[in-house]
Write a structure and sequence with these properties.
The longest helix has 23 residues. The radius of gyration is 23 Å and the shape is globular. The relative contact order is 0.13. The protein folds into two domains: 277 residues, Aldehyde Dehydrogenase, Chain A, domain 1 (3-Layer(aba) Sandwich), CATH 3.40.605; 180 residues, Aldehyde Dehydrogenase, Chain A, domain 2. With 487 residues, the protein is of the alpha/beta class. The protein is 39% helix and 21% strand. The protein binds nicotinamide-adenine-dinucleotide. Nicotinamide-adenine-dinucleotide binds next to helix 7 and helix 8.
């Protein structure tokens, strides 16, 4: 009998999805909602054997799927996107109950982006560059061949959006997929499998193995039967999975953590800069890209702090299902304690808490107050390690050189945000910042054709547009001699 949970009135399968069938697991784990810490599902706890079965199913399905005409694959992805749009409200409600992110964000931006991921790569597939190089009458041509079985491992902070960001280009490229969703928010992965089946995706092309990172995740990363590994998560886990994949020489695409700088020059539009800086608390700070280090020119430092703290004080914390809520809970108690540990150690290191600095006892549960920390000693933990909670630091700078020095003073390099009114300064500073993405006078704007990824320890590889196909496809060069003397 198939196991299901009913979450926000939506039935969700809690077994694995392997080879077009729901597969039970001897063991289960309890999935709790961050909203009230209540158990909401008992989910299959995958083992190495389940991973073997999923990789075998994906391997079996590969011959058929990789031979499908690109147009057919493209249409199928669009059909999955149609179903995402038709069930957008249900997906949004289940995701909010499961990971505590705002329902209004899921409705307005995250779930629409899920559909956009699918549609974008469906279209990009039909528009891949047909490269042709000629040298002394020999012609080299590029072919985008399917690579095989792609393993996808995802985090809990935007599970369905981040799953489709990898699954869509992999399927488009002609690969089959084994997805291991996060144990702290696994449910929408099961719904994705349902939508893919309804859309007509052949059995075994997309498989979902639920489970714990150190168990199912580790078994998948180390599996010799996978041809690509797309991992999104922390630097520490990224390093582990890269080592496991390295043993099999499996190519990896790693999208990891960040500690992004948010630079504000005195010539910036201060209203816009303050508004955007406060947005760094979005998703209770559980955003890889968040500009968590505010670096502000000294001449406007005091006024910036004043205006920022006033604006942040107006943020409403509460149930993420309420339209009026700005900040929901952290994902688990364990994570809340981890976040609080960073703040306590920052204080012990001599930093000053300007705002927040602890759990929000009035709201209770897993709510942590938006926190701003000043005067952290150079090189201290709070300035160099990712917290992944609503905790920002602020540092003053005198000039451009100092701003860039502070901005680049971590091992991360995911993103950087620059607010300035001077176009030439924006160019100069962007060139010197170590980051996969620099946003100038904006944040989070994502053109899916543009490259995305992290510098330094924030990741390996770039995805987006053709960059994604460069990873999920095996790019082949066919070099032909002239066919005749006239060629
Ligand atoms: P995590 O690294 O703990 O877990 C990510 C995934 O890896 C989960 O599915 C987990 O089950 C699995 N996993 C854990 N241990 C594993 C192991 N030994 N082998 C294989 N898989 C294992 O990360 P998280 O806490 O879920 O997510 C937060 C992190 O993700 C943050 O560092 C954040 O910055 C990062 N992130 C990065 C991006 C990006 O695009 N660069 C996007 C979102 C989140």
């Amino acid at each position: 009998m198939q196991r299901r949970a009913v979450v926000e009135d939506v039935p969700v399968a809690t077994d694995h999805w392997i080879g077009g069938e729901r597969v039970e697991s001897a063991d289960r784990f309890v999935d709790r909602s961050p909203i009230d810490e209540a158990p909401i599902a008992e989910v299959a706890r995958g083992t190495a054997r389940d991973v073997d079965a999923a990789v075998a199913a994906a391997r079996d399905a590969f011959a058929g799927w990789s031979a499908t005409a690109p147009k057919e694959r493209s249409e199928l992805l669009h059909r999955i996107a149609d179903r995402v749009e038709a069930r957008l409200e249900e997906l949004a409600r289940v995701e909010t109950r499961d990971n505590g992110s705002l329902l209004r964000s899921h409705r307005r931006s995250v779930m629409p982006r899920v559909a956009r991921n699918l549609r974008f790569f469906a279209d990009q597939l039909l528009d891949l560059p047909d490269e042709r190089f000629e040298q002394e009458r020999f012609v080299s041509r590029t072919r985008w061949e399917p690579a095989g079985v792609t393993a996808v491992i995802t985090p809990w902070n935007a599970p369905l959006m981040l799953a489709t960001w990898r699954v869509a280009p992999a399927l488009a490229a002609g690969d089959t997929v084994v997805l291991k969703p996060p144990e702290w928010a696994p449910l929408t992965a099961s719904l994705l499998a349902d939508l893919a089946r309804e859309a007509g995706l052949p059995d075994g092309v997309l498989n979902v193995v639920h489970g714990i990172g150190e168990e199912a995740g580790a078994a998948l990363a180390a599996h010799p039967g996978i041809d690509r590994l797309a991992f999104t998560g922390s630097v520490e886990t990224g390093s582990l999975v890269a080592r496991a994949a390295g043993a099999n020489l499996t190519p990896v695409s790693l999208e990891l953590g960040g500690k992004s700088p948010f630079l504000v020059f005195a010539d910036a539009d201060l209203d816009a800069a303050v508004r955007q800086a406060v947005n760094q608390y979005d998703n209770a700070g559980q955003v890889c890209l968040a500009g968590t280090r505010l670096i502000v020119e000294r001449s406007i430092y005091e006024v910036f702090v004043e205006r920022f703290t006033a604006a942040a004080a107006a943020l409403v914390q509460g149930d993420p299902r309420d339209e009026g809520t700005d900040l929901g809970p952290l994902i688990t108690r364990e994570h809340l304690e981890r976040v609080d540990g960073f703040v306590r150690r920052a204080e012990a290191d001599g930093a000053r808490i300007l705002m927040g600095g602890g759990p929000n006892e009035e709201v209770g549960g897993l709510h942590y107050r938006p926190t701003l920390i000043a005067d952290a000693p150079t090189g201290s933990e709070i300035l160099t390690k990712e917290v992944f909670g609503p905790v920002l630091t602020i540092q003053p700078f005198e000039d451009e050189d100092e701003a860039i020095g502070l901005a680049n003073a971590t091992d991360y390099g995911l993103a950087a945000i620059v607010y300035t009114g001077d176009r030439e300064r924006a160019d100069r500073v962007s060139a010197r910042l170590v980051a996969g993405t620099v946003w100038v006078n904006c944040f989070f704007v994502r053109d899916l054709r543009a490259p995305f990824g992290g510098a330094r320890r924030s990741g390996i590889g770039r995805e987006g547009g053709v960059y994604s196909f460069d990873f999920y496809a095996d790019v082949k060069n066919v070099c032909s001699a002239p066919w005749s003397k006239e060629d």
